[in-house]
């Protein structure tokens, strides 16, 4: 009991010190971030699971981008009790001179199988439940679409050359699993309402709604995995919501953001550990002088550290619970019915992850404590060796956290590489500036010369200080300016090279009509590139998901058909990364080149056999090369490319993507083009930027909270630095005053030291941002990074007075020392 009381008293005493409070605050912030993320993620996953049960509209759904063959559909019906076939596709509706792109659902007479289909006569009318969809020749539109086109029941809407009468306002679909999450407007028609040529080709999703018991569902899932490659099976019992993997990737992204926070936290903890380690060494040596066994003393030290960690966990848990309830309240606008529920499993998991990382950061200190003796009180071991070890352990723990959350190793590697490069640059810059300043000071007298002399004597500790300040500036710049720069750069580049109207998908029989329309309206076709829709369904005989392993945004995209293009020569806006590009005379047409980042995300290697489903047929290609985009030739590129000779072997309709430049007078004529070609997919650059702005708005809210976390940690790093080196500054000022140096001169010396430190740190932060921007922009977006110079110059300018102000506050404390005080210590 005596030892427990002593541990508690020592823990309380450490919390009263400044460095103890800084350490607790740092651990609390890191725990708070991951606990909030884990609780929010668990609630959303629970909500999606409930949403799956309520909104699937059947016991099982088989969805694919190509309709089943007649034999496969007959087999499915033989395994099920009831089947309803629906098709979904994006198409253009026109009403007089107005037009809008919608998600159109074509249903059969058996729809719906389960749930309530609700309609009304007006967008605000009382809901009426019906047992079947619209009749042939009719169309139901959702309230937003009715408002957008200013139409009502009885009005006519055109799809190509077919005119359909609005017979109801569509209020609710029982099988709309994305209810409340998708923002695209929607409409519903009977499959017999449209001629086949109106919806031929294009990106059509066919869904088979199935009523079946659990045994039949298992048989269907097993059969579909073998007979229908590329199809997705969603089951109400034991299934997964389509958004579940998307949210896991969002959690991974936010988890990756925590890596940066942990890097800053590691800097702050390492600085506070200097004083903590000195106090604990003294304490353990004192215990040893009283006859306490070293193992018992180490257990006491570990107990004190655990008590502090437990206190941080409790505070973080309370703060996370409050933030979690506020976030859920905000997310209810996107996930209707989402509720804040307590989930112990993710809480314990997040706490365990953070505790493991904090233990990793503390291992070097405990190793030093294990070697503490009475003799160590007399000796003053050098800090460089142990500090190097702490640096390695710190980066090791951060890399471990990155491995847990990363789903894009290319981007993760570049981010960590940019940070490490910036740290190395800051250390090198510190060494160069201090060395040059020291050489200059040897031939001169004065306070500035003495400042360089002191920095030379404390070169290693000064490097640690510079790295701490520099990382704060680097991460603040990245979080505050990267998204703003990205938007302006992307918009300017796209406007220069790709015009103001993107052709997302055009069929070959529409190209001549597009050219004539462009000529009639004074528009110009900037580019056109051919492709065929192809879905990657296998890698070396295994399905893509099992080959890739971890979920990623790339894997999610490959679940749907991508654009597969062809070229004998490497396109001008691509560069060869590895492998060997085929020649025009090559006889082997079953070769393929993949985008380098796609290869990294999916784990592809040269020689892998990639199986694609193209127009219902399976075709194998051997991976022989990798490419990436380079700026200067337009932004239209493809993840996968094959030889030109493969075009004739692929029995599939050719599609095109490209861009147009429209004058202002041509925009009102787009309705005529869409009336003639309803499946033509055109996306104005303005709409793309508006989508980006909406996404940027959500990200800005997240970045604001994230930046606040970084700012708090930056303050803690600065405070930890001041506390860590305060004792040394106190001794230095006491000795200088004993030699007749005044308080004002000591303060001026502190300003010199802070100014030089701030300049090196700010320069390193700016250089680090430029390196990170160049690496990430070039690899991820193939754009030239062009940051706003005022942000960069402002960082250097602002960091000077901030660091000097901290130096002033610390100096005021360290100046209160006399020769008698030095003798007493």
Descriptive overview:
The chain is α+β, with helices and mostly antiparallel strands and about 800 residues long. Helix content is about 60%, strand content about 15%. It contains 25 helices and 21 strands. The strands form two sheets. Strands 1, 2, 3, 4, 5, 6, 7, 8, 9, 10 and 11 form an eleven-stranded mixed beta sheet that branches. Strands 13-14-19-16-18-17 form a six-stranded mixed barrel. A hairpin with a 2-residue loop joins strand 7 and strand 8 (about 160-170). Helix 12 (about 410-440) crosses helix 14 (about 460-500). The longest helix is centred in the N-terminal third of the chain and has 48 residues, at about 240-290. It is elongated, with a radius of gyration of 33 Å. The two termini are about 35 Å apart.
Report the end-to-end length measured between terminal Cα atoms. 33 Å
Average of the residue pLDDT scores: 75
Secondary structure: helix percent:
55-70%
- Largest pleated sheet: 11 strands, mixed
Helix segment count?
Answer: 25
Determine Rg (CA atoms, Å): 33 Å
Give unreliable regions as ranges. Answer: 380-386, 489-497
Principal-axes geometry comes out as elongated
């Amino acid at each position: 009991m005596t030892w427990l009381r002593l541990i508690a008293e020592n823990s309380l005493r450490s919390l009263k010190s400044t460095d103890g409070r800084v350490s607790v605050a740092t651990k609390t912030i890191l725990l708070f971030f991951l606990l909030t993320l884990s609780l929010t993620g668990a609630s959303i996953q629970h909500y999606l699971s409930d949403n799956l049960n309520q909104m699937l509209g059947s016991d099982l759904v088989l969805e694919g981008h190509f309709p089943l063959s007649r034999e496969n559909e007959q087999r499915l019906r033989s395994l099920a009790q009831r089947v309803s076939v629906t098709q979904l596709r994006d198409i253009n509706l026109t009403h007089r001179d107005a037009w809008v792109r919608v998600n159109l659902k074509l249903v059969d007479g058996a729809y719906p199988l389960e749930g309530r289909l609700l309609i009304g006569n007006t967008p605000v009318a009382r809901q009426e439940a019906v047992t079947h969809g619209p009749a042939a020749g009719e169309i139901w539109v959702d309230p937003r679409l009715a408002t957008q086109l200013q139409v009502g029941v009885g009005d006519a809407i055109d799809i190509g050359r077919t005119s359909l009468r609005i017979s109801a306002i569509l209020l609710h679909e029982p099988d709309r699993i994305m209810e409340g999450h998708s923002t695209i407007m929607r409409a519903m028609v009977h499959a017999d309402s449209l001629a086949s040529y109106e919806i031929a080709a294009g990106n059509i999703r066919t869904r088979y709604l199935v009523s079946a018991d659990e045994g039949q569902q298992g048989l269907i899932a097993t059969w579909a995995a073998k007979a229908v490659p590329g199809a997705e099976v969603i089951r109400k019992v034991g299934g997964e919501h389509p958004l579940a993997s998307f949210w896991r990737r969002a959690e991974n992204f936010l988890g990756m953001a925590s890596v940066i926070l942990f890097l800053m936290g590691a800097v702050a903890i390492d600085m506070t550990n200097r004083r903590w380690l000195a106090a604990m060494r003294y304490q353990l040596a004192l215990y040893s002088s009283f006859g306490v066994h070293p193992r018992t003393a180490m257990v006491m030290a570990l107990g004190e550290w655990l008590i502090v960690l437990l206190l941080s966990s409790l505070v973080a848990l309370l703060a996370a619970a409050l933030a979690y309830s506020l976030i859920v309240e905000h997310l209810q606008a996107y996930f209707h019915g989402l509720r804040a529920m307590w989930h112990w499993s993710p809480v314990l998991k997040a706490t365990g992850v953070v505790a493991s990382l904090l233990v990793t950061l503390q291992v070097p200190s405990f190793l030093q404590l294990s070697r503490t003796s009475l003799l160590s009180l007399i000796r003053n071991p050098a800090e460089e060796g142990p500090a190097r070890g702490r640096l390695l352990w710190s980066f090791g723990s951060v890399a471990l956290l990155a491995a847990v959350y990363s789903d894009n190793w290319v981007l993760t590697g570049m981010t960590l590489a940019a940070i490490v490069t910036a740290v190395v640059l800051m250390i090198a810059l510190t060494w160069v500036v201090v060395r040059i300043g020291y050489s200059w000071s040897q031939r001169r007298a004065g306070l500035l010369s003495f400042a360089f002399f002191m920095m030379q004597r404390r070169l290693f500790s000064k490097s640690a200080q510079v790295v701490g300040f520099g990382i704060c500036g680097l991460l603040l710049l990245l979080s505050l300016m990267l998204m703003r720069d990205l938007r302006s750069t992307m918009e300017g580049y796209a406007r220069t090279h790709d015009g103001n109207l993107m052709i997302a998908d055009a069929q070959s029989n529409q190209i001549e009509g597009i050219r004539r329309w462009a000529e009639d309206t004074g528009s110009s076709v900037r580019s056109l590139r051919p492709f065929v829709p192809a879905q990657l369904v296998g890698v070396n005989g295994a399905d893509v998901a099992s080959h890739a392993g971890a979920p990623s945004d790339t894997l999610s995209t490959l679940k749907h058909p991508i654009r597969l293009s062809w070229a004998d020569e490497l396109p001008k806006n691509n560069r060869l990364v590895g492998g060997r590009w085929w020649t025009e005379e090559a006889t082997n047409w079953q070769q393929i080149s993949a985008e380098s980042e796609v290869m990294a995300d999916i784990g592809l290697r040269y020689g892998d056999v990639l199986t694609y489903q193209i127009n219902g047929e399976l075709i194998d290609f051997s991976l022989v090369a990798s490419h990436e985009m380079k700026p200067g030739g337009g932004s239209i590129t493809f993840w996968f490319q094959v030889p030109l000779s493969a075009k004739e072997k692929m029995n599939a309709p050719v599609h095109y993507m490209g861009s147009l430049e429209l004058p202002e007078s041509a925009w009102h004529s787009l309705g005529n083009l869409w009336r003639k070609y309803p499946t033509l997919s055109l996306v104005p650059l303005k709409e793309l930027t508006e989508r980006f702005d909406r996404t940027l708005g959500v990200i800005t809210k997240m970045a604001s909270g994230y930046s606040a976390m970084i700012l708090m940690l930056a303050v803690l790093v600065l405070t930890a630095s001041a506390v860590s080196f305060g004792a040394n500054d106190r001794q230095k000022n006491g000795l200088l005053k004993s030699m007749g140096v005044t308080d004002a001169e000591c303060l001026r010396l502190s300003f010199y030291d802070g100014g030089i430190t701030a300049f090196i740190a700010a320069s390193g932060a700016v250089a680090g941002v430029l390196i990170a921007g160049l690496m990430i922009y070039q690899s991820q977006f193939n754009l030239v990074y062009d940051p706003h110079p005022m942000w960069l110059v402002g960082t250097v300018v602002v960091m000077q007075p901030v660091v000097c102000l901290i130096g002033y506050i610390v100096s005021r404390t360290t100046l209160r020392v006399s020769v008698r005080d030095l003798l007493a210590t």
